[in-house]
Amino acid sequence: MAVTDEAIEKIKEMIVSGALRPGDRLPREADLAVQLGLSRSSLREAVRALSLMRVLDVRQGDGTYVTSLEPSLLLDALSFVVEVHHDSTVLEFFEVRRLLEPPAVAIAALRIGESQIKDLRAHLDSVGPDATPEELVANDLEFHRRIAEASGNSVLCSLLENLSGPTMRGRIWRGLTEEGAWQRTLTEHRAILDAIADRQPQLAQSWATVHVAGVEQWLRTSLLLS
């Protein structure tokens, strides 16, 4: 069992046993990590995952609380998982994205302005080590949107924008369940941007293909195993 999965299970056990009840505030991160025998980083990842599952509510500046655990709230999170794991049509969106986005990246490498490249670097650098999954996904979507925009092709940009919604949940779920996925995403983003900045359209297109196909392959494997 992965370390993050173990951390999730331990927090869930506290809730099921009644040690944590709906509305309860979790102990401080350092104290809870010691109590559960976990590293603070694995505990932090578990809290992020459980917050997306609507089990925990992270309130900036206040602490982390157990949600009401109302069935309607948890069913929203369950539908998230079901949609990703049992609706294979999302693969078709990823296939179309793989066909359209890498060429758009290649065009952007030829047309993008220096100020846009500078802004993209600042955008990637804005992601800190403690970024939430929501912040990481928002950064991911904005990175791809800006590159599509830099292609100068409004039709292509619009098509890719419409593909971002149907593929977003798959990207989030991969980030939560595959160890190192977020860091790999950021590394691939930087490789794409470096190739664009060097005005190497073929290299940029290759990196974009690797990037998009990686998520698609993970999802395809997950669907086969589910």
From TrEMBL:
Q: Which GO terms describe its molecular function?
A: DNA binding; DNA-binding transcription factor activity
Repeat in keyword set: no
Q: For the HTH gntR-type domain, which residue ranges apply? A: 1-69
Give UniProt keywords alphabetically: DNA-binding, Transcription, Transcription regulation
Q: What is this protein called?
A: FadR family transcriptional regulator
Q: Which Pfam families match?
A: FCD, GntR
Cite the PROSITE patterns for this sequence. Answer: HTH_GNTR
Protein's organism: Actinomadura darangshiensis
User: What SUPFAM superfamilies does the annotation carry?
Assistant: GntR ligand-binding domain-like (SSF48008), Winged helix' DNA-binding domain (SSF46785)
